[in-house]
Amino acid sequence: MSERSEKIIKIIKMAAANFMERESSGQSLITITDVKLSNDEKYANILFTVLPESMEGQALDFAKRMRSEVREYIKTHTKLGK
Length: 82
What we know:
alpha+beta, two-stranded antiparallel sheet, 21% strand
């Protein structure tokens, strides 16, 4: 993996964690564990864990609902969207 890819992953991971901390209900702890970046660096899959595990379904539903908001947050709070 290139140094550029590693930097992009780190930036996305931090921004996604900040977003989840701000926007989640606080009923569970959502931790961003990894970011998988496509070869062309245009797409990213954000992986996360949830505690307690019983809240996993609700956290996944939340993440799916907030996809476009996460994307917009990353664009506006980092230099990646420019």
